[in-house]
Amino acid sequence: MKKQILFTAIMMLMISKMSGQVMGNANYQHRIHLPQNVVQVPHPRGDDFIITVRGISNVKAQNYVAIFSVKQSGKSAGEVNELIDKRLQPLIDYCEQDADMSAYIDMISFVPIYEVEVVNKIFSKTTYNEVPKGFEVKKNIHIRYGDPQKLNGIINVAAGSEIYDLVRVDYFAYDLESKKQELMDKAREVLGKKINHQTEILDTEITNYNRRASDGFTVVYPIEMYTQYQAASTNKISIDNRANVNAVQKQTTYYYKPYFDKDFDFSLNPIVFEPRIQIMYEMKVLFSLKPEEKEEKPEPTKVEVVERKQIILLTPSGEMKTIQVQ
Question: For 204-220, what is the mean pLDDT?
Fold first, then answer.
């Protein structure tokens, strides 16, 4: 009993320090490495050039969903369901008291449990038979809430029912589309300034270039942005190769590491005080120099040559007459 109380107290202390920065136990299994979106445009040639504009928006979530995993075993199907529902009911009741919260039970598995029974026979080898022992059920409870500080109260109620496995916390925002539109509008403004700067350097008019553009978004959520580190150092003193060294297990922890605005041309809501949904936008424009227009030369005048035949006749009086033949 004392161990259980101590474990619950430690859990409360850890969660109270996390405040709005919640990762969940799911990240202890694997890390998600999500590359930023790369926009492709044709490779520039000759006098061509590319202008790239990158922006980021840090969006505060309006709703959160915490997922807790619960496992229960029992001798019969009725008993195991009754026990797990009894553990989940306090959380359901807690959510029903607050209009800003709601709960959903997600059935995961319901399987029989077997144990091995040893059968000894005189004239044969020992036989091991699996026989039914009971049942095991797993359920997840999803809890939606709007204020991130309410997770502390949820944890208190969950710990009272011996529910300790906080799987993950998801973040949701209603206005992601409007935030994307803000990024595109700001990117066009920045693009105009970069075009003016580029044409001044090249001492040319932008109308002399054809344009080809491509753009794209990347959205990352807080659960994808936790990084692992180990707060420990190893002694560098020389040790006898024949000595036995008993290494102490170094504690590994995680911290929230968002994308920072240093790699972007502009940032909307740049200060990241608590985990945010991050929307990144990238636009690339390829400027290709138009070919020089050739002067059109007038076509040469066509001269039509008409051949005419003449017949000269000598009259009896000695006169010469010319007759035209078509």
Answer: 87
